[in-house]
């Protein structure tokens, strides 16, 4: 069996052109499972030839249209033709790209001025299609740069990739995302501007390269949500971003925030996180302490006092048990003053038990006192951010940073932490975090990818 592959191009002015792509030959007498259908190598070769034919014809038609001056409808001559190398997902193609002479009606003061431009350069200034750039950045944000290059070389007929190409392309796409992420709403969407925007923030620590003379640095991840349904994930490194505050402000605007819209920040108590949002909005923000971090510390107090009280016989034991049982309820309902008073009582009781006991009971008392002091200090440092969590929950609003906790793994740890052995520069980590956030949001598409 012989298969001949041809494609036919029909131009806008009626001309038809036939391209011979190639052929296949299969033996039916000595057929095997490997000879059924197309192999990966044959498919890549055919796709590459089709891409070359289609791209060359497309460049010619675009140039033919550009030869007509849009101002005076004069038919412009071709200045010259130059080979242009275009990287696509289906191979690196060299095309003959004509340069068109510019019409002098645009320069009436300089009638003898001669200049030419390339329509292909205007359309594709980076000599690479957006689809290829998107896939390079997408794979580079999901896998190591060498693994991303290997996948592209194995599965697509694109030009030979290496880790440096993937790294540079990801940096280019990250710069594009930062330049184009300030998406102001259309006039028709004014009614959809939310009344409140909620920002969930958390941070992860990434191992630093030796030349930066630090062991690790911080990468901030988060999710910006509003009542209109818009959601925006973000990832940035303050040490690596050129303008971290402007970057966060752009992400807030893309999620629907505008001046005058109230902002609520949920974090684990790190003061730098709400301060970053405050600087980005140039306004006061409502800071809410993450309930999960509070609850974990309450649980530590409960377990240590359960162990201590089970070994003590004292007249104060029933009253202490009641304080421990009501501690969580008081903090959940925003009764911070009463909770701090109870913690003070619990701390003094644990210290007295430590002085009057020996052996295992003494160790249990020391552990209970340490856990109580830890919760007391945590609440005192974030007393303005402890709210009535019960009422906020009944209003259908979030009380924890679980969204941001998940993003720590999805944006930072999977690519830059935990089992990954790479060390990062702050700039490189910022680029990867920004691209990974765009991948998770679905913003990294060939149609929406800007040009750096």
Structure description:
- Helices cover 47% and strands 18% of the residues.
- α3 (130-142) packs across α14 (426-441) and α8 (291-309) runs antiparallel to α9.
- Mean pLDDT is 87; it is low at 182-191.
- The protein has helices at 40-66, 119-123, 130-142, 145-155, 163-180, 244-254, 272-281, 291-309, 317-332, 336-356, 359-381, 389-394, 402-416, 426-441; strands at 2-10, 16-25, 78-88, 91-101, 116-117, 196-207, 216-226, 231-236, 262-267, 286-289.
- It is built from 14 helices and ten strands.
- It is elongated.
- With 452 residues, it is of the alpha+beta class.
- The protein has a five-stranded mixed sheet, sandwiched between helices. The protein has a three-stranded antiparallel sheet with strand order 3-4-5, sandwiched between helices. Strands 1-2 form a two-stranded antiparallel sheet.
- The two termini are 49 Å apart.
